[in-house]
Amino acid sequence: MRFGVNYTPAVGWFHSWLDFSPSDTARDMEQIASLGADHVRVFPLWPVVQPNRTLIRQAALDDVATVVDIAGSYGLDVNVDALQGHLSSFDFVPSWLDSWHRRNLFTEPDVVASTAAYVEALAAAIADKPNLLGISIGNEVNQFAHAPHPAPHDTTAEQGHAWAATMVAAARRGLVSGREARLGPDPSASVLAGSRPTPLVTVAQYDAAWYDDAQPFGPEHAADHGDATVTHSWVFNGSAALHGPLGAGSVRHGEYLLQLAAAWNREPGRLNWLQEVGAPTNVVDPADAAAFTEQTIRHVAGAQDVLGVTWWCSHDVSRTLADFPELEYDLGLFTNDGRLKPAGEAFAALARSGLPAPAAPPSTAVVLDDVLPDGSPRSGVRADCAPGGRFAAAWLACAESAEDGRGPQVVLRSRLSDAAHTAARGIRSTVEVPDDLAGAAISVAHPATLP
């Protein structure tokens, strides 16, 4: 399992892209590498790179490429997020999408075309980097699609699919054209040529995609687009309030999201990436942060097909910067001046020791009723999966009773009759969720009951 860190620059936070300093970046990357991490996720600010719909600044692209090179000099691979988008309660949307020029991010043809041009240019600028882990389309861009965003860009699930497919295609075109421009023609017209690893293209969403039935971007958008399914785990979503900061429902939340992701993946074996997880001090006491970090990562390591865990974040936000929510100032593995914190020590101990991938996936799966008996879609599925929901409670009960300590898989009712699918995932028995969790026992079906 890979260990990574979301990179928050110690000097100037993400505003540092306005006056980029290679020396500051090198210092930060050296500290991150000292943890035993193997990758970082970096966040160029969209308005800095594309301040006008038809202007993509080459100097800004060069700065991104330099960050990738600096990280590589310390043995770190890099995932680059394109659309920032949203970071730590602040929106970074170009002026050509706001106020007098307000247009829909997801559906306006000129906006979609210009955004895709930026994604393609960014991918092309770094395509030849040997330490490029991949491109994520953006940081939780789905938060722009619905409340609680104060000014959402209304869209439908179908429009969300079209938008995501357009952005993924743009990133892949950029990876191909950028590699060919610098390394010569590729006869296969693919970034797969040669021994160089293939950069991943991913779509990152916050957990409303899994838990909020009103959110236009849902599990299918995560599972159907790109090369891996991304999850972001934050226990201030109700998990810690329900279970306590070190309760099973909190320290297993990242593991649970990974199992939900695997259920929605159409192809067994598709990689799942816990791309954001942290110990937010509004619900996790700083004294518990190290224990929360260790337990969360150990549970994640027990899930199948896990690409890795990428912790949020590298450095605390400086208190010289105003107006952040209080928890944002204390999420780093390092303090703002570079001192390693207890959570950082816990992360480093696991990263340096390594956690081997499990030999086999959990053999039991909890059945998620995504369809009605007649096969039509069932409403309220995501609410059932949210913290405190009926399905979430059933999964947690199974996880806590498992002899090997690993949480069960999740299988969709709509796919339960596909014997090839369940066999490929190693599912040999299933658990039905009782109608009344308070008064009913959870029963495990024998393998013979599976098709």
UniProtKB/TrEMBL annotation:
Organism (species): Curtobacterium oceanosedimentum
Keywords, ordered alphabetically: Hydrolase
Keyword Hydrolase: yes
Gene Ontology MF terms: hydrolase activity
Protein known as: Glycosyl hydrolase
